[in-house]
C-alpha cells in the first residue's frame, strides 16, 4: 500500500502542473484583463485617473471595470502610452506569458500566492476569510445528507417494491428535480419573512450582536442562520445518495454469503448489519471526502448569493468577473492540490472500510 500511495503522490505533481498550464493558457485568450478593467473604470471616473496617475500605484485608485490602447487597448486612446505601460508593468504584463507562468509557479512552490489586484489583500488571507462559510455549508450539508440517506436507503432496500419504497422514491426524485436556487427562494419566501413566516434570518452567517452573545447563544445563532442555506444545498444530494445506498444493499443481499448466513439461522438484523452493511456501505462511506470537497468547492455559489453569504463560491465568481488573476490562479492551485489529495484519502478510506482491498494487486 505504501508504494501505491507514493505513486499517487508523485502523480499529483504532473497532474497539478497540467491543470495550471491549461487554465493559464486559456486565460491568455480571454478579453477584458486587469489592465482593460482599470482603464474602463478610469474613463468612467476622472478623479480615479487623477489619483492613479499621481500615485503611480495600479491598485490605489482603481476598481474593476472593462475596456481596451492603440491596437491593443482600443478604448484607451485618450490615455498616455506611458500610463498604459506603467499599468502593464504594475501587473507584470510587460513580461512574456511563459516567464510569467514560471514566476508564478516558482512563487507557489514557496507558498507565496500573491496579492489580489483589486483588494490589496493576500490570496491566502482571502481564502481563510471566506472559508468558514464554505466549510459550514459543505460540512453540514454532507453530514445531513449521509445521516438521512443511509438509513432511508437501507429501509428502501429492505422494503423493496413496497408502497413505502414507491412513495419515498417519488418524493426524492421530485426533490432532486427541483433546482437548488429555486428551493432556496421558496425557503426564503416561506420562512424568512417573504409572504408567510419570519422564522429564520434573511442573510448572513451570524447576527449583528454576535459578540455580545453567550457561548450557547452564539451556537444557537449560528445554527439559526445556517439552517435554510444548508437545507437548500442538501436537497438535491438526497436522491443520489439514497438510491446509491439502496442499490448497494440490494446488490449485496442477493449474494451467496447472505443466503448462507440466513441458512445458518442468523437473525435478519444480524445478517443485515453484521454482514451486508460493511460491504454495501463501502462505496458510500469511502466517498465521503470526495462528496464533501465537491459541495465545499463547487456547490454553493448560488446559495451563497441568495442568502448573502460571503464564501469561497462568491470569491471565485467575483475574481473571474474582475479578472483578478492572483485570486483565480491561487485558489485554483490550492483547491486543485486539495482535490488530488482528497482522491488519495478516498482510496485510503476504501482500505479502512474493507481491508481486503489491495490497490497494488489491482494495478499489477
Structure description:
This protein has two domains: 32-103, no CATH class; 124-363, MetI-like (MetI-like fold). The protein has 18 helices and no strands. It has helices at 2-27, 34-44, 46-55, 81-91, 97-109, 123-158, 163-177, 180-191, 215-234, 237-253, 256-263, 268-280, 282-286, 288-298, 301-306, 312-322, 325-353, 359-363. It starts with a helix and ends with a helix.
Please summarize what this structure is.
The protein is an all-alpha fold and 364 residues long.
Architecture blueprint of SSEs:
Blueprint: H1 2-27, H2 34-44, H3 46-55, H4 81-91, H5 97-109, H6 123-158, H7 163-177, H8 180-191, H9 215-234, H10 237-253, H11 256-263, H12 268-280, H13 282-286, H14 288-298, H15 301-306, H16 312-322, H17 325-353, H18 359-363
- Contiguous low-pLDDT stretches (5 residues minimum) are 45-71
CATH class of the largest domain: Mainly Alpha
* SSE order, one letter for each helix or strand: HHHHHHHHHHHHHHHHHH
Report helical residue fraction: over 70%
Question: Number of helix segments?
Answer: 18
Count of spatially separate domains? 2
Radius of gyration, whole Å: 26 Å
Shape: globular
Give the averaged pLDDT, no decimals: 77
Note the beta-strand portion: under 5%
User: In angstroms, what separates the terminal alpha carbons?
Assistant: 12 Å
Which second-level CATH architecture of the largest domain applies?
Answer: Orthogonal Bundle
Task: Tell me the number of strands.
Answer: 0
User: Would you tell me which CATH topology of the largest domain applies?
Assistant: MetI-like fold
Main β-sheet, in a few words? none
> What is the H level of CATH, i.e. the homologous superfamily of the largest domain?
MetI-like
Amino acid at each position: 500500500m505504501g508504494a501505491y500511495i507514493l505513486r499517487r503522490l508523485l502523480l499529483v505533481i504532473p497532474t497539478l502542473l497540467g491543470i495550471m498550464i491549461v487554465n493559464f493558457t486559456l486565460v491568455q485568450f480571454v478579453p477584458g484583463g486587469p489592465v482593460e478593467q482599470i482603464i474602463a473604470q478610469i474613463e468612467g471616473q476622472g478623479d480615479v485617473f487623477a489619483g492613479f496617475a499621481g500615485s503611480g500605484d495600479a491598485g490605489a485608485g482603481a476598481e474593476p471595470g472593462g475596456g481596451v490602447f492603440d491596437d491593443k487597448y482600443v478604448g484607451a486612446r485618450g490615455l498616455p502610452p506611458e500610463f498604459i505601460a506603467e499599468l502593464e508593468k504594475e501587473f507584470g504584463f510587460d513580461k512574456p506569458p511563459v516567464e510569467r507562468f514560471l514566476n508564478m509557479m516558482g512563487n507557489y512552490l514557496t507558498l507565496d500566492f500573491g496579492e489580489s489586484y483589486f483588494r490589496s489583500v493576500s490570496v491566502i488571507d482571502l481564502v481563510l476569510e471566506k472559508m468558514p462559510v464554505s466549510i459550514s455549508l459543505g460540512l453540514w450539508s454532507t453530514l445531513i445528507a449521509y445521516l438521512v440517506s443511509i438509513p432511508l436507503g437501507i429501509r428502501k432496500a429492505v422494503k423493496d417494491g413496497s408502497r413505502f419504497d414507491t412513495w419515498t422514491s417519488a418524493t426524492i426524485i421530485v426533490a432532486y428535480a427541483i433546482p437548488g436556487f429555486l428551493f432556496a427562494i421558496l425557503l426564503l419566501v416561506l420562512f424568512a419573512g417573504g409572504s408567510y413566516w419570519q422564522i429564520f434570518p434573511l442573510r448572513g452567517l451570524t447576527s449583528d450582536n454576535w459578540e455580545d452573545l453567550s457561548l450557547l447563544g452564539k451556537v444557537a445563532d449560528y445554527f439559526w442562520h445556517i439552517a435554510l442555506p444548508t437545507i437548500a444545498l442538501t436537497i438535491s444530494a438526497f436522491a443520489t445518495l439514497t438510491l446509491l445506498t439502496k442499490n448497494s444493499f440490494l446488490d449485496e443481499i442477493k449474494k451467496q454469503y447472505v443466503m448462507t448466513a440466513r441458512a445458518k439461522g442468523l437473525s435478519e438484523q444480524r445478517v443485515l448489519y453484521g454482514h451486508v452493511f460493511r460491504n454495501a456501505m463501502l462505496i458510500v462511506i469511502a466517498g465521503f471526502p470526495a462528496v464533501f470537497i465537491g459541495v465545499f468547492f463547487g456547490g454553493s455559489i448560488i446559495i451563497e448569493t441568495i442568502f448573502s453569504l460571503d464564501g469561497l463560491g462568491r470569491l471565485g465568481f467575483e475574481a473571474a468577473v474582475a479578472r483578478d488573476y492572483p485570486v483565480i490562479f491561487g485558489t485554483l492551485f490550492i483547491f486543485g492540490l486539495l482535490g488530488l489529495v482528497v482522491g488519495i484519502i478516498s482510496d485510503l478510506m476504501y482500505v479502512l472500510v474493507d481491508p481486503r482491498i489491495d490497490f497494488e494487486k489491482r494495478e499489477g
